[in-house]
Amino acid sequence: MRNSRNIIIITILMIITAMAVAYSTFATQLNINGQSKIIGEWNIKITGISTENISPGCDAGTPKYSNTKAIFNAKLQKPGDTITYIITIKNAGTIDAVLSSAEFTPDDESGSPAISYKITNPAYSLKAGTETTCKVQVIYNKETTKVPAIKTKKIIGVIEYVQND
């Protein structure tokens, strides 16, 4: 009996050893290596500011801009005067964009009520390599009958483009 138990244990150990050798013989380790690279470029920027429709005697100043900021300083002389600034926006990247928001906020609380702004939004869709314009017209209200005490009015505009899905 003791002998038969030893034979069974040795047989089981031999079977386990044979299975381990068989497994290692037929087992293969696969190595997978990969690399990903983003080649798209996001580059929406302001590329210029020009003027049009400058009323006689008014001064449009020298507009300034950087990639993401436009600054102008209009000097209006009399009621009815206007100056229009044309801001050029370019998609210099490789990713198509769509307009998410265009918010222009004039300083109505502490700014002159005699000055108003009229805005035309840029194009909704801005494909890679294309450009659009946004117009900002500064207007001295023609209904004004006397020079206002407050003579300035600021405007802040934020134009936001996002990736086209």
Describe the structure.
The protein is of the alpha+beta class and 165 residues long. It has a single domain (44-163), classed as Immunoglobulin-like. It contains one helix and nine strands, in the order αβββββββββ. It has one helix spanning 2-26; strands spanning 44-52, 64-65, 70-71, 82-91, 97-106, 115-120, 125-126, 131-140, 155-163. A four-stranded antiparallel sheet has the order 1-4-8-6, with no helix packed on it. The chain has a three-stranded antiparallel sheet with strand order 7-5-9, with no helix packed on it. A two-stranded antiparallel ribbon has the order 2-3. The longest helix is centred in the first third of the chain and has 25 residues, at 2-26.
Shape: rod-shaped
Mean pLDDT: 89
CATH topology: Immunoglobulin-like
Largest β sheet strand count, sense and barrel closure: 4 strands, antiparallel
Quick structural summary:
Helices cover 15% and strands 36% of the residues. It has 165 residues and is of the alpha+beta class. The strands form 3 sheets. It has a 4-stranded antiparallel beta sheet with strand order 1-4-8-6, with no helix packed on it. A 3-stranded antiparallel beta sheet has the order 7-5-9, with no helix packed on it. It has a two-stranded antiparallel sheet with strand order 2-3.
